Amino acid sequence: xxxxxSRRKGGVHVELPPYAAGxxxxxxxxxxxxxxxxxxxxxxxTDPLEAMLDFEGPSEAPEDPALRRLLPDAHRDxxxxxxxxxxxxxxxxxxxxxxxxxxxxxxxxVLGDAGDGGGGALEADVEFELDREQARAWLRxxxxxxxxxxxxxxxxxxxxxxxxxxxEDDERLPVYEIYHWLGYxxxxxxxxxxx
Length: 195
What we know:
56% of the residues lie in helices and 7% in strands. It is mainly α.
């Protein structure tokens, strides 16, 4: 079972079983890959002010539906305004989301690239403290993970009934259970932050 307990000054104590910590680290790495895949690169030799203001950001929505969910259009009824807004904000939004995911990986710090302690399965629970800012980064990252899985599965609001009735041999069931587990983590962490 995963535990989040509130601490003084908005901090949160986290205790995760090894399999949960490994799964969360793996999902977070995949999220970072998704956000960096197809990311527009900064041209070398550009004016530093222009690079800082990002005048050459992407103006079209990503092709991947999960990325479109994470990086939505700001103006749904005005393509020109949406393209202009995206041009100035998408790179920063991607970097912010990667930053939140990096906080999750950093705080899970005992995990190696394989989602374990660097060669074998973790045997003990993973415990650490989150300060207020880290807890917020965790909340945003867990939300992004859920949104990504919801888009991949086709989950929409108020459609729990067909998903809860999936047969055990349905290949979507394990992913849906992870989606549901992320919802539990998100709600549990939010409760701890609010106390």
